[in-house]
Amino acid sequence: MKKIIPILFTLILTLSACAGTSASPEGEWTLISYGDTANQTLALPNTETSISFNSDNQFNGNVGCNIFHAGYQTEKNTIKIQPIASTKMYCQDIAEQEDAILHILSEQTLNFEVNGNQLILTSSDGLSMIVLEKK
Fold it and tell me: What is the C-alpha separation between 62 and 67, in angstroms, rounded?
């Protein structure tokens, strides 16, 4: 019995430490879908999209035509996006997708979940979502 108590104590400590951690959004991701949580819009086909969350709390990407970058901070399963800087070229066929993605990301706190090879970003009100896949 005396041998079991230290083992149980170590196991409980290990499990409680793991319970408080969440996966990281770090990495390079490609856009799968975006928009209204209940009615996602698929990413435009044949359009290069990528968003990279770097270990130095910077992220950048291209969701169709323009490039953008900003800082971010994570805490548990939330990510706070700092003001986004972006180029301003107009690309008619891609503008709607870019505007929607940048609107969701712009200066707000999002909930994030890493589920297998997907990163899901959800607005704090739960109405908007971006689904990305690991490159």
Answer: 5
**In angstroms, rounded to a whole number, what is the distance separating the alpha carbons of residues 88 and 34?**
21
Q: Quick one: which of 121, 51, 44 has its CA closest to 86? A: 51
Residues 88-110 have pLDDT tens digits of 999 999 999 999 999 999 978 99
> What burial class does residue 66 get, using C-beta atoms within 10 Å of its C-beta: 0-12 exposed, 13-18 middle, 19+ buried?
middle
Find the radius of gyration of the CA atoms of the chain. 18
DSSP count for the chain of H helices, then E strands: 2, 10
Whole-angstrom distance, CA of residue 37 vs CA of residue 3: 51
Domain count across the chain: 1
Q: At 121, which CATH number? A: 2.40.128.270
Q: Count CB-CB contacts under 10 A for residue 101.
A: 23
